[in-house]
Amino acid sequence: MRICFSWLYIAREIRVYGDPEVHPQTEEYWGKVNPIGIRSCYDEGKRCAETLFFDYYRQHNVDIKVVRIFNTYGPRMQPHDGRVVSNFIVQALKGENITIYGNGNQTRSFCYVDDLIAAMLSMMETPKGFTGPVNIGNPGEFSMLELAEQVIALTGSKSTIVFCPLPSDDPKQRQPDITLAKKELNWSPTITLEEGLTKTIAYFKNSLFE
Ligand code: UDP
Hints:
CATH superfamily: NAD(P)-binding Rossmann-like Domain
Number of helices: 7
Oligomer: single chain
CATH class: Alpha Beta
Largest sheet: 2 strands, parallel
Order of helices and strands: HHEEHEEEHEEHEHH
Number of domains: 1
Number of strands: 8
CATH architecture: 3-Layer(aba) Sandwich
Structural class: alpha/beta
Bound molecules: uridine-5'-diphosphate
């Protein structure tokens, strides 16, 4: 039996790394997670999911494939999801303030959704017994300030950047090491942040103002 639902629920599996002390993050890194914070149920939930998958693999020989999905964005994101890319684009298009949490120096690495899907399909084609985990993400690393500036430039918005309180346990930096994905999946991302943001902005323009 092949279990595919790891795709469905290990969304943004990078939470297994928590607020990492190792940069970029390799699959061997065990992470740094607060077990009792406001984000813990999310972070520890991802870790527990991996544990269960590997127990089923060891005890019942279930054919598992685990990918660790770093920040992903693209068309069909929900406008009120609260994710940074959708927030900034919606705010910019509506001319509202762009809300940066903290000083905006925290970094993330954003992968366009089409690149992510290509990697997942390659993962499902790997031979039985290749379980991962495999990091999937775009190693291009940007601060939230840089992201806000790019969104403003690409939308031509007159929005102003405002600084809001940083949520607790917000990771300071995040960047995937995708050496394993390159080797085992023969995959690396092809869509730059500028290209991906342009497509995502076009989607939100249509869906917000149609
Ligand atoms: N963030 C922000 N403004 C927003 C939404 C998020 O500055 O309107 C920051 C958030 O604090 C975090 C980063 O953007 O540092 C990425 O947030 P997101 O929720 O998209 O992903 P995650 O924190 O899960 O990586």
